């Protein structure tokens, strides 16, 4: 709508079932951009077929403990976020924690603070929901993302296995306490 008035604006939008095709598209595009150099074509394809099939994404979108958000500028989707609470978390960290399962920005929009905005948005949700921790898993060799989390104060507390095709990879588990006194995110 905003384009009709000539001024596209930045927004974070909660994703519903009606956006499943766009979600699938950006999930695949960002995963391939990030991991194509470090996985075989077969493993990558197997992972995409399983993790980002329409059936799988539909069940995740319908899970009341999971939420997906797009970062958009006008009609353009620049990246997305997936967070889990309660039983949707991939590890039994506790009901006072929120899992940042996916944070992906398209290559061409990286380094423009969009990742930072989505991370701040995650913490604001955790704070409003009165949760104490945000945690995540990151591939041990994804140094850029690890640096991003370290810069934000995350610390390693464990590790788990993340399987891409037939390749069992090690994910570092990192966590950061939610500061209930802090204002993380100011709406635009
Ligand atoms: C990791 C990611 C989400 C960060 O988002 P981003 O929008 O690129 O990062 P931002 O612009 O918000 O930058 C925040 C900080 O990240 C780090 N960073 C950003 N771009 C960087 C780069 N090119 N090289 C190294 N560090 C970088 C910096 O510390 C930066 O802060 P500073 O520039 O003020 O010092 C994004 O790069 C991404 O989507 N990567 C590919 C997918 C991925 O690995 N996701 C995480 C899976 S666990």
Question: How would you sum up this structure, described in words?
Answer:
- The chain is of the alpha+beta class and 188 residues long.
- The chain has a single domain, classed as Aminopeptidase (3-Layer(aba) Sandwich).
- Helices cover 32% and strands 32% of the residues.
- The chain is built from 5 helices and 7 strands.
- It has a 7-stranded mixed beta sheet, sandwiched between helices.
- Helix 1 crosses helix 3.
- The longest helix is centred in the N-terminal third of the chain and has 16 residues.
- The protein is globular.
- The relative contact order is 0.15.
- The structure holds coenzyme A.
- The site of coenzyme A (COA) has 19 residues, from helix 1, strand 4, helix 4 and helix 5.
């Amino acid at each position: 709508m905003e384009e009709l008035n000539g001024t596209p604006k930045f927004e974070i939008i909660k994703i519903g079932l009606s956006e499943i095709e766009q979600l699938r598209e950006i999930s695949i595009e960002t995963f391939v951009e990030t991991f194509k150099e470090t996985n075989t074509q077969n493993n990558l394809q197997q992972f995409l077929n399983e993790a980002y099939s329409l059936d799988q994404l539909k069940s995740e979108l319908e899970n009341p403990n999971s939420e997906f958000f797009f970062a958009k500028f006008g009609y353009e989707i620049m990246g997305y976020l997936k967070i889990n609470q309660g039983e949707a978390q991939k590890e039994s960290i506790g009901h006072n924690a929120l899992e940042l399962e996916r944070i992906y920005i398209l290559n061409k929009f990286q380094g423009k603070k969009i990742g930072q905005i989505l991370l701040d948005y995650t913490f604001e949700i955790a704070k409003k929901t009165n949760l104490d921790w945000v945690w995540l898993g990151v591939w041990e060799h994804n140094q850029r993302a690890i640096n991003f989390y370290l810069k934000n104060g995350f610390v390693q507390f464990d590790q788990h296995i993340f399987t891409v095709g037939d390749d069992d990879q090690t994910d570092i588990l990192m966590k950061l306490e939610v500061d209930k006194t802090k204002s993380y995110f100011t709406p635009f």
